[in-house]
Every structure is written in structure tokens, then in C-alpha cells.
Amino acid sequence: MSAEVRLRRPGFELDVTCAVRPGEVLAVLGPNGAGKSTLLGTLTGSVLPEHGRVALDGRVWLDTRRGVDVPTHRRRVGLLAQRPTLFPHLSVLENVAFGPRAGGHRARRARAIAREWLDRLDVADLAGRAPARLSGGQAQRVALARALAADPEVLLLDEPLSALDVDTAPAMRGLLHRVLGAQRTPCVLVTHDVLDAVVLADRVLVLDEGGVVERGETGRVLSRPRTSFTARIAGLNLVRGTAVAEGVEVDGVTIRGGTAEPVEPGDPAAAVFAPSAVAVHRAAPEGSPRNVVRVRLVGLEPRGDTVRLRAETDAEGGGVPLTAEVTPAAVAELGLEPGDRVFFAVKATEVAVHPLSVG
């Protein structure tokens, strides 16, 4: 799928081009007002820009120059929004069967497709339940089943985890990782949460003030951001490697942590932790259940009451970027300067291990 969108409104302009390959997940990140929803609306057909073109496999859905604007119901777009807008008068089974029925399947076949998707998303036991009797996590799984059962040509995810609580979101994120990894459908994910991009997206497109400020493979963009905005949203430490029983292994070093979402040993995974969880030492600390990594400081950035230390793991050929946030007093006490080699330490309890998109 390819899209080109230009739109002008008082005080706002959007100018975006993007492409998503079959089976690929593109995450669109950006602050409120950056243009994420407008881009999504152009793809669904609910927004008509001044200039735009949207095409999939050679079929044109939108071409403002030629006067082409295929209506939403003919675009075969699957949408999973922030809140699962299920039909309240239909059972879970009939909600999921609605898409196949609208696509031309007979009732019996549509229900069979619905049952298959409910089973794949581990909610088959909810088939006869009314939407009002579902929890938030259950309703979102059913909404995902409904979107996929319609056999969409493009899947759009609009902040799909933002309305879920902190206990439910990780399970849903893990489910999306598993389901999207098995799909050949192009997928666009709009999110404000960097973890969604880390776990789900092959590539990232970062919008700010209506324009693209960064784009590329997820790991490259988020681990080496080129703009201050991207650095801000990617404020977590992200160590990409291979899942092992204790955590994540990279370059022969294991970062120990707790599993936030299911991940199989040997699969791509990321160890994620906050810069504020990192302690800095001149000598390697001993006798504690901490991850200790030798790093070289590459920059010190004052940030109000703290100082952000930018570093790279001390490895030949370039190390993994890491950051720590410490007090100005700690910087003075340790006498820290760019180029110094020190040790970053973080407790295993502060590290969350997530499955990782291959992008």
C-alpha cells in the first residue's frame, strides 16, 4: 500500500508520503496534533485531503487529481480503534460474523469464520455473550477478531491499547505481536506509546507539526534518534537481542529482567528500562542482583533537576546506546566527563523483557 497526503487547514498543514509492504507493520508516532488521525482518516476514506493518492496492489482508492474517491465501505479496511465499538444488540459471535456476512458469505459460513477467529484469539468461550458483559480486554480482543474476520486488505490500528489498564495492555500487546506476525496484510499502527512500536512495528514514521521528521527501521530510529522529539518519545533504554531464560542476550552479555509479555527463548526480544533506574559507578559493583555494563560516556545533558548521561556499551565496532539520569551532585562527586569509562548498573526488577518486531 502507498499513500501520499497533502492537506491545508487554518494553522495546520499535513504533508506525508508512506508505503507499507505486505505483512509489514508501520508505526506512526507523533504528539497530539501532528497529523496521525488525519493520515488514518485519509486511508479509511473519512477524510478527503486537498491532494492525495492511496493505492493498494495497483488499485487506486483515492486520486484527487483524477477525481477518484472509493467510499469507505468498498475499501476493505479493517480498523481497531481505541475503544471497541461492538454492536450492543448482537452477541460476540454475531459481531465477528458481521464482516464476513457483509462481504457476501452466507450466515453459516460467516459464523464458521467468526468461530475460527474467536478461537485464534483465545475468546471462543465468549461467543454467546453480549458486549455489555465483556471486560475491556475481552472486548478489544473481540473487536480485533471482528476486524480480521472481514479479511481486510489493510489493517489500521488506532491507539489500540490506550484505553486498556496497565494489567490488561501487556497481554493484548503480546496477542497483537503474535497475530500480526502471522499476517500478510499491510498494517498501519497509530500510537503514542514507544513500546507499541518496539513490540509490533517493522518500521516507524515519526510525524511532528504535519511533516515527517524521521522514518526507517524501528530499532534504528528509536535507538539512534536524529531529532529531539524522537529522542524524547524514545526515552526508554532499549537493548535489542535474543530472548534467553534469564532475559535478553546481546554480544555475549545477558541483561536479566522479568518477562512483561510472552516471548520464546531464541526469539528476537528487547530489554527495556528507564534511564532513572540506572546507577552509575566508577568501579564495577559487586554482590547484588544487578545488571552491570561497562560503558563509555558520549555526552552529558542537563535536564532541570537531573543530568542525562548518554553512553555506549564499551565494545569494539560500536556499542549499544544507553542513557542514565542522575543528579548534578552525582556528576560532580564522580567527576564525570565525556569519554570516561564507567559502569551502568540496573536492578533486574527494573527491566522488562518484551518480544520484538524484526524490523
TrEMBL record:
Domain of life: Bacteria
A GO biological process held by the record: molybdate ion transport
Signal peptide: none
ABC transporter domain ranges (all copies): 5-234
InterPro entries per UniProt: AAA+_ATPase (IPR003593), ABC_transporter-like_ATP-bd (IPR003439), ABC_transporter-like_CS (IPR017871), Mo/tungstate-bd_C_term_dom (IPR008995), Molybdenum_import_ModC (IPR050334), Mop_domain (IPR004606), P-loop_NTPase (IPR027417), Transp-assoc_OB_typ1 (IPR005116)
Any one GO molecular function term: ATP binding
A Pfam family the protein falls into: TOBE
SUPFAM superfamilies found in the cross-reference section: MOP-like (SSF50331), P-loop containing nucleoside triphosphate hydrolases (SSF52540)
Residue span, Mop domain: 286-355
Keywords: ATP-binding, Cell membrane, Membrane, Molybdenum, Nucleotide-binding, Translocase, Transport
Record-linked PANTHER family: ABC TRANSPORTER I FAMILY MEMBER 10 (PTHR43514), SULFATE_THIOSULFATE IMPORT ATP-BINDING PROTEIN CYSA (PTHR43514:SF1)
Record-given protein name: Molybdenum ABC transporter ATP-binding protein
